[in-house]
Design brief:
Structural class: alpha+beta
Helix content: 25-40%
Strand order of the largest sheet: 2-1-6-5-4-3
Strand content: 15-25%
Radius of gyration: 17 Å
Order of helices and strands: HEEHHHHHHEEEEH
Distance between the termini: 10 Å
CATH superfamily: DD-peptidase/beta-lactamase superfamily
Largest sheet: 6 strands, antiparallel
CATH topology: Beta-lactamase
Length: 266
């Protein structure tokens, strides 16, 4: 198994502003065959998907007809919507939703779907534990089941899910795949690989139900393609202390820096 020796050093450098890295996972698989090419760290433990769940939400939103294209619907921000990030307090369309990880826009998609259809999609996607009940006794599954709550997925399961997207094996239409790919497209890598991906960040819950803000989770998941070959990847970290930037943003920066060399060796 190929070892990405430079990745650890890069992660510890870039995670200095997000808090030192704890145990984590790096995994890469061939999208066509599903064969795992790289697996390092703890890739079996389920945690919250956080904003990586915007990838399946985009598929649901386009397949259901709520989302139209990259810029429709454009929905206005309203008082009472999730607004802990100031960048969310303005009109948002699908492209901005994905770029800025706007939580309230995700919630408008799930509201449109309703509890039954939302749960059906998650189960049909075979997504992690498929538990969208939300917090016990709170009846908030549509609002936050994927944010530090009931829905959990392991890095290995993320990898398998991404492979099903690339192979178009999920029960959604072609437009949903095409638009989800458009929303998640990032700048190409220096060695010519195209790149799609999404970050995610959230906090674990302590025994009293409060957030453990010292040990934030960070995700970066997606796929890369070149010359007819596609690989899917997952990078998941957890920090040792609270930092200045989210663990998801730091993990993405370090992983994208290391990824070209990793792909050249596959």
């Amino acid at each position: 198994m190929m070892r990405a020796l430079s990745l650890s050093a890069l992660l510890f450098t870039l995670l200095a502003t997000a808090g030192a890295a704890r145990a984590d996972c790096t995994a890469i698989a061939d999208a066509a065959s599903g064969a795992v090419l790289v697996e390092e760290g703890d890739c079996a433990t389920r945690i919250t998907p956080a904003s990586t769940f915007k990838i399946p939400l985009a598929l649901m939103g386009y397949d259901s007809g709520f989302l139209i294209d990259e810029h429709a619907p454009a929905l206005p921000f309203k008082t009472g919507y999730a607004d802990w990030n100031p960048e969310w307090r303005e009109t948002t369309d699908p492209a901005r939703w994905m770029e800025k990880s706007v939580v309230w826009y995700s919630q408008r998609i799930t509201e449109h779907l309703g509890a039954e259809r939302f749960a059906h999609y998650v189960a049909a996607f075979d997504y992690g534990n498929a538990d969208v009940a939300g917090d016990p006794g709170e009846d908030n599954g549509l609002m936050r089941s994927w944010i530090g709550s009931s829905l959990k997925i392991s890095p290995r399961e993320q990898l398998a899910f991404l492979g099903r997207i690339v192979r178009r094996e999920l029960p959604v239409d072609a437009h949903a795949y095409d638009m989800t790919s458009a929303l998640t497209a990032l700048a190409p890598l220096p060695n010519g690989w195209s790149l799609n991906g999404k970050t995610g960040a959230a906090f674990p819950r302590l025994a009293d139900g409060s957030w453990d803000r010292e040990h934030g989770y960070g995700w970066f998941v997606g796929w890369a393609a070149k010359d007819g070959r596609t690989v899917v990847f997952v990078r998941q970290v957890q920090t040792e202390r609270k930092g200045e930037v989210s663990a998801g943003i730091a993990a993405r920066a370090a992983f994208i820096e290391a990824l070209p060399a990793m792909l050249d060796k596959l």
